[in-house]
Amino acid sequence: MKGIVYHTRSFSVHDGPGIRKTIFLKGCPLRCVWCHNPESQSFNMEKLESTKRLGNKSYEIVETLGIEVTVEEIINEIKSDIPFFEESGGGVTLSGGEPLAQPEFTLQLLKSCKSIGIHTAIDTCGYASWKTVAQTIPFTDVYLFDLKIADSMEHKKHTGVENEQIIKNLKDLSAAGCSIIIRIPLVEGITDTPKNIEGLKRVIIDMKGIQRIDFLPYHNLAKHKLCMVKKHNQLDKMENYPSSKAKSVASAFVGYGPIVSVGG
Fold first, then answer.
1. pTM to 2 decimals?
2. Torsion of CA 155, 186, 122, 165, to 10 degrees
3. What are phi and psi of 69, to 5 degrees?
4. Which pLDDT tens digit goes with each residue over 124-144?
5. Pairing state of beta strands 180-186 and 142-146?
């Protein structure tokens, strides 16, 4: 079983509990205007061109983004981090891109992790068939579920897809007794409007299984990535989201989850 991965990161502390190994799978069905990993969107391996400076000299660098790997190769890489997982209560997080967009590879990787006792998490936008989501439940300890915009048409305007299936999957995961970490991006004038905030509250108000709600303030670090992948930056003039405003938005969700935080 092979999949396309574009990055792996050890010692991650923001992608689930404990110290984690995060595996970034390539390809995503959404096109969020605030995406901070635009290089993850394409399902294909890509050649990226960039300029590096050393002193007074400039060098053109061409790198390949994405590599085809087997489940066994990933597991062998993961095994060296097991002592850190055991010490910290950590494990492996599948991210992207969108891991559910490579469903067979993701499922086999989850099964292989569980077979050797590793805690697993999926960081997902939730845009997949329920059949795809449901088959991961026995092998996933926690879902890091992005919840962006409550209104379906607004969601489509800013992400490229409607959100009915996303919200249905979130509610069905809750009904199935799954552990869920809600992740809400804060993008000024898009996700932080009073209308959207109230809409998101209505989505999660009666949900069970929510372990925490993390607010992720927009940052413009993706600007150089967008240049590398030759994509238009729709938020070119937008500044980093103010931390004081993020804390104010987060405070409105106190009581909707046992932990409400800014930054994850």
1. 0.91
2. -20
3. -135, 160
4. 999 999 999 999 999 999 999
5. parallel
Mind listing the pLDDT tens digit for each residue in 163-222?
Answer: 999 999 999 999 999 999 999 999 999 999 999 999 999 999 989 999 999 999 998 776
Task: Give the chain's domain count.
Answer: 1
Containing structural domain, residue 7? 2-262
Give the Å distances, CA to CA, from 199 to 146, 205, 227: 15, 10, 34
Written as one string, the DSSP assignment of the chain is: -EEEEEEEEEEESSSSSSSEEEEEES--S---TT-S-GGGS-SS-EEEEEEEEETTEEEEEEEEE-EEEEHHHHHHHHHTTHHHHHHHT-EEEEESS-GGGSHHHHHHHHHHHHHTT-EEEEEE---S-HHHHHTTGGG-SEEEEE---SSHHHHHHHHSS-SHHHHHHHHHHHHTT--EEEEEEE-TTTTSSHHHHHHHHHHHTT-S-EEEEEEEE---TTHHHHHHTT---TTTTPPPPPHHHHHHHHHTTTTSSS-EEE--
The CB density around residue 219, as the number of other CB atoms within 10 Å, is 13
CA distance 142 to 120: 7
Tokens of 71: 């489940």
Residue listed under structure tokens 């949900």: 207
Amino acid at site 256: Y
- CATH (domain of 52): 3.20.20.70
Select from 25, 34, 38, 27 the least CA-distant residue to 224: 38
Q: Is the peptide bond before 3 cis (omega within 30 degrees of 0)?
A: no
Contact present, 207 and 223 (Cβ < 8 Å):
no
